[in-house]
């Protein structure tokens, strides 16, 4: 029997890259046209962040809640779990994030945006990347539109957009809402790196960018 230190991440991967991305293709076909609704929610989120007003944090939190619940059930529970037993636990984690958004984002209204601040501008850019550019990655790397990952329907862009929203709110009072998204960035990066996917650095870089900007802003204000 091999010693534990002889194992690599690829030894624990339960599926091939072909199977993983084929999953997105089947998922997108199965849920169509839900992607159109999800993209519309993403555009609404960007519009609300562009000119934030009092009380808009609740609407943004409600949008994110719907997206996290959808990804927990439709993607992780119904589809990803067919090739990865751990996806059931991912579904629980995404559902937990949705509940946190309901309580702290909708009920307590703790998503308060800071217009014209560095964190707000950077956060808006991160959300725009997740909504507009992340779906383009699949066709750009040759996987085709059917394997595109869309905000509100797939986990990665939903997580990135959530981190952008939290950064736009200043991060200080809602940093713990970023724990599950940050953990997902690490996990997603590890999986895609193990598969040799060209977008493997994307999720860790997004998490690092958000943390660095939030940390620098906090240090400057203290």
How would you describe this protein?
It is a single chain. With 222 residues, the chain is mainly α. It has one domain (14-217). It has helices spanning 9-12, 17-31, 34-50, 56-77, 87-107, 118-133, 137-140, 155-168, 179-194, 202-221. α4 packs antiparallel against α5 (87-107) and α8 (155-168) runs parallel beside α10. The N and C termini lie far apart (54 Å). Mean pLDDT is 90; it is low at 1-9.
- List low-confidence stretches: 1-9
Order of helices and strands: HHHHHHHHHH
What is the radius of gyration? 17 Å
Tell me the number of strands.
Answer: 0
Approximate shape = globular
Main pleated sheet: none
Distance between the termini: 54 Å
What is the percentage of strand-forming residues?
under 5%
Helix content: 55-70%
Total helices: the number is 10
**Mean of the pLDDT scores?**
90
Task: Count up the domains.
Answer: 1
Structural class: mainly alpha
Would you spell out the secondary-structure blueprint of this structure?
Layout (H helix, E strand, L loop, with lengths): L8 H4 L4 H15 L2 H17 L5 H22 L9 H21 L10 H16 L3 H4 L14 H14 L10 H16 L7 H20 L1
Helix pairs in contact: 3-4, 3-6, 4-5, 4-8, 6-8, 6-10, 8-9, 8-10, 9-10
